[in-house]
Amino acid sequence: MAPDTDSRTNEERVLALKWSNRISLTPRILAVNIFALALLGGGFSYLDSYRERIVESRIAQSSREVRLIAQSLASATKERRDLLVLSLARDMGVRIRLYDEAGKLISDSKELGLRNFVLRDPDKDPWNQTVARFLDGVIDTVAGADRVMQYRERDPAHGFNWPDVRTANETHGAPATVWRAPDRTPVITAAAPIAGLGVVMTTVNARDITQTVRSERYRLGVVLLFVSLASIILSLFLARTIVRPLRHLARAAIRVRLGRAREVVVPRLPTRSDEIGLLARALSDMSQALRARIDATEAFAADVTHELKNPLASLRSAVESLTTVKKKEHRDQLLEIVRDDVHRLDRLITDISEASRLDAQLSRATFEPVDVGQMIQALIDQREARGLPNGIRLRFDRPTGRPLIALGEGARLERVFENLIENAISFSPPDGLIAISAASDGYTLTIRVEDDGPGVPEAAREAIFRRFHSVRPDSEAFGQHSGLGLAIARTIVEAHQGSIAVESREDRMGGARFVVRLPLAESE
Q: What is the full DSSP assignment across 70-103?
């Protein structure tokens, strides 16, 4: 199986944050929730439009009422006019003023004793009314509401100073105007002409409109307050459950980066089954793998030092002895020792170099389909062509009619099976048989290499895959192997998402059985 590869460019494009990459998660969570609250707070702007619709309705109502009053006054005699003005003002809840054709006041319901139009003095209102007016001003400013003119009384002798009176006299219509009282409540005036008499004007302080809007605003404010508190509490809770563990994980990762991997315990958060728990366990596993890699690197360095010291000590002893030995046969023996030690060092350095670079090379390798059956057959043919010692035989059993395809790097896999075959040859007795078999179950390719040698003790079946662990036959000269062959083979197989192990033979006969399992390309 090919290793997973990710495109850094694609990841950065997907995960990039254009505008919030410098903002912490906590204010981001709060900002998102507060934005939703701001949308709810937009209901205050709706209240402004709601008030405008009520005012428009009341303006139309005032226009109709003033027309009716004008018609009633037009049919009344002069003696009953004041009584009719007083009666209509009381029934309709408005102040009625009657102007003659010159604009002079001739009748006023207030002067007749009906005081149903009284403007409140804001300085004498309680504090809650002051707060309400302040909120009115703030909301009008935020909503961009039009600011109407403040209501002020005009000279009774100059009725045409009222815009509605002047317009009604000129156009014979029924205009109406909205004014602002000192306490910010609307005052609506309307006027209508009376044929042969003058103009009648009504005035009403529509406090009920303001009270209705304030009541709705209070209800909306209470809802907004509770929703805001709940949203902030939930946001802080969410930020705590997300940001706090992420902060702990970041600190642990920083400590790992600073070189204190052995002392760092990355919290695994086993009780969390969400993405943060998955991230915590992934970071914990990563730190443990890094710790294991560091330990393995240090152990490898120590083993390298130990393995190099032996041939170097032998080489130094032989070189120092050359200066004191006189006999030619003794000098030849020392030179042979030097030659063997140099070859041993060269073999060690070559194998050590390959083992140290193997992980990095395999991580960058491009895996391709490889016919493992054909590869093993080619290795057997090459080995037989070079000749097999002591009458040893090689046999390969594999299924016919179907190639055994795995994804991998051919040269590395060849190294694995070549190493196993050479090991089997080294340990096989004279006239021994080395049986190599390959089989698949549709998902996994299994290759077995069996010999008739002494076998591998069960206690040593894991140790033989360690670096520099070498158990060789007694007939083989010392130093012919570095002890890295099986370690390199395991590294290659595991990089191919496979496994290699030593198992007991099913026939209970002596000898060793090495089993390599690789995923088939079809299972991908």
A: HHHHHTS-HHHHHHHHHHHHHHHT-EEEEEETTS
* Residue 134 scores a pLDDT above 80: no
pTM strictly above 0.70: no
Domain-located, residue 313: no
Q: How high is the pLDDT of residue 12?
A: 44
Q: Domain for residue 345, yes or no?
A: no
Q: Binning pLDDT at 50, 70 and 90, where does residue 354 land?
A: low
Counting the structural domains of the chain, the total is 2
Whole-number Å distance between alpha carbons of 465 and 4: 26
Tell me which residue has tokens 């009314």.
129
Cβ-based neighbours of 208, under 8 Å, separated by 6 or more: none
Provide the CATH number for the domain around residue 438.
Answer: 3.30.565.10
Can you give the residue range of the structural domain that contains 192? 41-218
Distance, CA of 337 to CA of 348 (rounded, Å): 16
Distance of alpha carbon 387 from alpha carbon 30, whole angstroms: 78
* CA torsion through residues 110, 112, 115, 117, sign: negative
Percent of the chain with pLDDT over 70: 79
Amino acid of residue 189: T
- Name the residue among 160, 164, 165 with its Cα closest to residue 177: 164
Q: To the nearest whole number, what is the mean pLDDT of the chain?
A: 79
181, 151 contact by CB (below 8 A): yes
Going by their DSSP bridges, the two strands 405-408 and 368-371 should be labelled as antiparallel
Show contacts of 222-226: CB within 8 Å, 24+ apart.
Answer: 223/40, 224/37, 224/40, 224/41, 224/43
- The Cα–Cα gap between 263 and 265 comes to 7
pLDDT tens digits, one per residue of 456-509: 887 777 878 776 656 554 454 444 555 677 888 888 888 888 899 888 776 656
- Which helix (H) or strand (E) segment holds residue 204: the answer is strand 198-205
Per-residue pLDDT at 80 exceeds 50: yes
> Would you state the pLDDT for residue 523?
47
445, 518 Cβ separation under 8 angstroms: yes
455: left (phi over 0), alpha (psi -120 to 50) or beta: left
- The CATH number given to whatever domain includes residue 145 is 3.30.450.20
Please give the residue that has the higher pLDDT: either 162 or 346: 162
Helices (H) and strands (E) in the chain, counts: 12, 12
Contact in structure between 455 and 415 (CB atoms under 8 Å): no
CB 474 within 8 A of CB 481: no
24-50 per-position pLDDT tens digit: 666 766 776 676 666 666 666 667 777
The pLDDT of residue 94 is 93
Q: Which residues pair with 198 in a beta bridge?
A: 100, 194
